[in-house]
Specification:
There is one protein chain. The chain has 290 residues and is of the alpha+beta class. The protein has six helices and 19 strands. Helices cover 24% and strands 26% of the residues. It is globular and about 55 Å long.
Length: 290
């Protein structure tokens, strides 16, 4: 499985072949990765194949539901199963069905977490604070109600980040694959531990498929990075990529009936404003260990 994996530094020929294929005809607009669909009942439909082609190229696809008022959480779960996603991450603020309702906090246990506010969210991959045996490999985000203003998502393919880092200096990849490069301190609430401290790599490979996984947050507080020179240089260049290589980024504000299915790509969200006289912004988020 790993003998010719392009993400291993020793496999230079495999990497060069993968790099050239990755960059060839890489989409440069949101329409190129968007697919409209009436339903997604099986993996033998043209819409499924269209979505899969987008995901295989960019690790993400935007989907547009033609009749959003008929699209429920059960449909969202069914969509995941069509793509082989069944092991949901029942995270701290998830609903009883393990799918999370993202809106401004109306539960005490959500207060203080930025995703449940109208504040901007900076670059991250989901579940960067999870343990190594509960990494988030994929995610579906679906918009039920858009905000009155704002709430734009920016999406960035982690494989492109890997590629740009490796092209700049392959030692950056070595540094970011170290198992002790990034530590998320324990989450303590009311003097009680909610989650233990988690240490791990930024880039790792799926133990079965060999697919690339990225674990990252750009936040500065409650984060501990390895302090050696190479790691700090790699981190600085990674931040440079996210700031200056917007030719590879996809920006889009999801409207009601739109969603994104993805291999846990890097993403951020702008701040938003809700009108108190209209329904507030609501998105469903399903995270998977698959």
């Amino acid at each position: 499985m790993y003998s010719n994996n392009p993400f291993l530094l020793q496999n230079t020929s495999a990497y060069a072949h993968w790099r050239d294929n990755k960059l060839q005809d890489y989409p440069d607009n949101i329409a190129a990765i968007s697919v409209s669909l009436d339903h997604l009942a099986s993996d033998n439909t043209e819409t499924y194949r269209q979505l899969l082609r987008c995901i295989q190229k960019t690790n993400m696809a935007i989907f547009n539901i033609s009749v959003p008022e008929k699209f429920s959480k059960k449909d969202l779960s069914q969509m995941g199963r069509v793509f082989g996603l069944s092991h949901l991450d029942n995270n701290l603020c998830a609903d009883k069905d393990s799918i999370t309702s993202l809106c401004q906090a109306n539960r005490p246990d959500k207060t203080g977490y930025i995703p449940y506010s109208n504040k901007a969210l900076n670059w991250h991959t989901d579940g960067y604070y999870n343990s190594s045996d509960q990494l988030i490999y994929s995610m579906i985000l679906y918009c039920v109600q858009a905000a009155q203003k704002g709430g734009q998502n920016t999406l960035f393919d982690p494989e492109i980040v890997y590629l740009l880092l490796r092209e700049e200096n392959s030692d950056y990849i070595k540094a970011l694959m170290a198992e002790d490069v990034l530590t998320i301190p324990a989450n303590i609430q009311n003097n009680q531990p909610v989650r233990s401290s988690q240490t791990g790599a930024v880039f790792s490979l799926h133990p079965v498929t060999g697919a690339l996984h990225m674990r990252f947050t750009i936040r500065a507080k409650y984060i501990e990075w390895k302090q050696d020179t190479l790691t700090q240089e790699a981190l600085q260049f990674l931040q440079h990529i996210l700031t200056h290589h917007f030719e590879y980024a996809f920006q889009h504000t999801l409207s009601a009936g739109q969603g994104v299915i993805n291999n846990n790509v890097l993403h951020k969200r702008s701040a938003f404003t809700d009108d108190i006289n209209t329904p507030q912004r609501l998105l469903y988020r399903a995270r998977y260990y698959d």
